[in-house]
Structures are given as C-alpha cells and as structure tokens.
Amino acid sequence: MKLFLIPKPVGTLISLLPRYPHSLIFTRAINLALGGKLEDETWQPLHGKHICIRVKDAGIAFHFTLGAHGLIARHAVSRPDLTISASAQDFILLALRKEDPDTLFFSRRLLMEGDTELGLLVKNTLDALELPPLDLRALLPGRLLDRLRTRLLA
User: Fold this and answer.
1) Which residues are within 8 A (CB) of 86 and not within 5 positions of it... i.e. 6 or more apart?
2) Which residue from 36, 100, 102, 130 lies 20 to 30 Å from 93 (Cα-Cα)?
3) With 80 as the cut, is the pLDDT of residue 102 above it?
4) Superfamily for domain range 8-153
5) Domain coordinates of the chain in residue numbers?
6) Closest Cα to residue 111, out of 92, 134, 90, 96?
7) Residue 136: left if φ>0, alpha if ψ -120 to 50, beta else—which one?
8) Any bridge partners for residue 29, and if so which?
9) Rg of the Cα trace of the chain?
10) Residue 2 pLDDT level (bands cut at 50, 70, 90)
11) Average pLDDT, rounded, for the chain
C-alpha cells in the first residue's frame, strides 16, 4: 500500500534545509498532540536522552530530548542515544495504526540504532497510550488556522 512517497529530488532538496527548525516544529506538534501525556513518570528514562527520528526518503531528521514539560528540540549530534529511521510512508502508517512497529522492524523498514532498550521503552509506551486515530485532514492549513484562532480567542 503506497500512501505517501517523497520523490528523491524533493528529499535531496529538503535535506539541504537547516536542521533545527524541523526539530522545533516536530516537537511543538508532538507536544500539542500528546498534551500532558509526556509528563507521566513512564517516560522518565527518556529525560535528557538525545533522540533522533530520521525520515529516510525526506532526508530530514528530528533531534529532541524529553524535558519536564514535553519534548525539547535539540541540535544534531554525531551519536544520538537513540535513532529511529523509516520512510515517511512507514511513519504515516504507524501514526494511523495501519502498520505494527514489530512488523516494520522485522521487515527492516523500521531501524533502531543506539540504545535499543530505550527504543523498546518508547515503542511499548507509545503502544500503551490510548490515542485517537490520526486524522491527516486535521493538518490541512484551513483547519490548523481555525484551531489556532479558537485557542487565541479562548
């Protein structure tokens, strides 16, 4: 099933962009999506660990750590504590819960490097979270602006 594939020239172009803004946008989006769930003590082992989510076909990587109130963007380092890599399509399938991380891992479509025990903690904790299904239509610019307007006027 091909939901989303980033063409190689686009991925090459994206990979030339500055790294830090990607991570900042990513961490803000995750913090908004998960609310206070990242403040739970279950996530304690992630505090201060440098984690990298690498989207292989897009040529981008999100670097972050977990702080007291959620994810915090970090600048890239040569050896993060944990790197999780997959294609954009596979990350979307995971977010939509249409694909199991174990299946992707054993088919070598999802890679973990570094502290794999930390990776298993992340995987198991995310699996245990009761999250509503991801609705990609909520990311359309008009809907995002409506939500922002509602928050600012509340």
Assistant:
1) 54, 55, 56, 94, 104, 109, 110, 111
2) 36
3) yes
4) SCP2 sterol-binding domain (3.30.1050.10)
5) 8-153
6) 90
7) alpha
8) none
9) 16
10) low
11) 81
Q: Look up tokens 């991380």; give the residue.
A: 101
**Per-residue pLDDT reduced to its tens digit, 105-148:** 899 999 999 998 888 888 887 777 666 565 656 666 777 677 77
Six token digits for residue 143: 């809907």
What residue has token string 């939509």?
A: 96
Give me the amino acid identity at 66: L
Q: Is 84 exposed, middle or buried (0-12, 13-18, 19+ CB in 10 A)?
A: buried
